[in-house]
Amino acid sequence: MARKKLTMSPLSTILIVTSNQANALYFSQMRKDCRFSNLNVQAEMSFKSLEDFITKAARRRSQGGYTVVWAVFDFADLKVKTDDVKAAMPLAQQKKVNLAWNNPSQCLWYLLHYQAPRGVVTDAKVFENAMGNLVPGFKNTTDYLLTDGLMLHLSLFPNKSKAANNASLYNMMAERETGLSATNMIPLINDITRVCGQADITHNQRQLK
């Protein structure tokens, strides 16, 4: 009697394409810390516009055969405004590219793990300085994330729920003032959990002591 052939569904994969190297390093920390083997991170810095960035993220998804792709960008990097992002959304939907942004920079997302700003801020330096006051030596640079900031994600991870709550509060203010949320990181984090499962950071606990 012939044995039945066991079949398994292919593992879903998620690709994060970032608009700068520093953001890519942060998500690479996440991949390592949480043991997300089916999370892939790539930086794409040779783009002419937000639309070009979206198109290149879609191309990377197709070339790598990834199930889901997220294009992560900072307003400051792309020099875009709210209306630019809104105008690019139909293209992203057409290309099946999910958008995650921070206005003005990813330092906002880091800061939300500690507190919600009291007013809407669009100056990236303000958030970098605020993070420097909370995390001695913090710099929003690749050099920092490769040296003193090697465990930035791990140090922020316990405050993930707080970041979500603070993001919700801050986004309400931003939407009233600008017509668009200041950060769209929570849908990305939720999608990572959906595709990759729950994080396993038990092997990293001793590093934080």
How does this model look, in words?
The chain has 209 residues and is of the alpha/beta class. The protein is 50% helix and 11% strand. It has a single domain, classed as Rossmann fold (3-Layer(aba) Sandwich), CATH 3.40.50. Helix 1 links the parallel strand 1 and strand 2. The chain has a 4-stranded parallel β-sheet with strand order 2-1-3-4, with helices on both faces.
* Helix amount: 40-55%
Mean pLDDT: 93
How many beta-strand elements? 4
Topology as a string of helices (H) and strands (E): EHEHEHHEHHHHHH
Number of helices: 10
CATH topology: Rossmann fold
Largest sheet: 4 strands, parallel
Strand content: 5-15%
Low-confidence stretches: none
Whole-number count of domains? 1
In CATH's first tier, which class applies? Alpha Beta
Using only C-alpha atoms, the radius of gyration works out to 18 Å
Strand order of the largest sheet: 2-1-3-4
Shape: globular
- Gap between N and C termini, in Å? 58 Å
Q: Label the CATH architecture.
A: 3-Layer(aba) Sandwich
Q: Could you say which structural class the secondary elements and strand pairing correspond to?
A: alpha/beta
